[in-house]
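User
Take a look at the entry that follows and flag anything odd:
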Amino acid sequence: MVGLLAAGAVLLFFGTALSVYGVALLGAVVGGGGGYLFAPTVAEALGVAGPFSTAIAVGIGLLVGAVLAYSLLSVAIAATSFVVGVYLGIVVLAGLLVDGPAHMEWIVAIGIGFGAASWE
């Protein structure tokens, strides 16, 4: 477990930090570890014991960890794109597109930000 976590961290620090696969792999490892730690508690509550319950919990943890990591990465990229899009819109494009009051420029800039965030 520690080896997989260390390997995932090494992958992330050596250039795959924005790679969906690297982030999903690390999320899967962390989720699998969480499932491994959570399995004894759930197994006792459900009346199931043994390696089968641990294997099921680890599998579910792997899946949940990968999905959550992928989703959070997508949200982080969309939020960053929105901020950059609004900045680009207000500094560069709104002045070219809108010849009117400042609130119209901000509306156009926010629209550009939404467009940049949804481009992903």
Q: What stands out?
A: The two ends are 33 Å apart (CA to CA). The mean pLDDT is 77. The chain has one domain: 2-118. The chain has four helices and no strands.
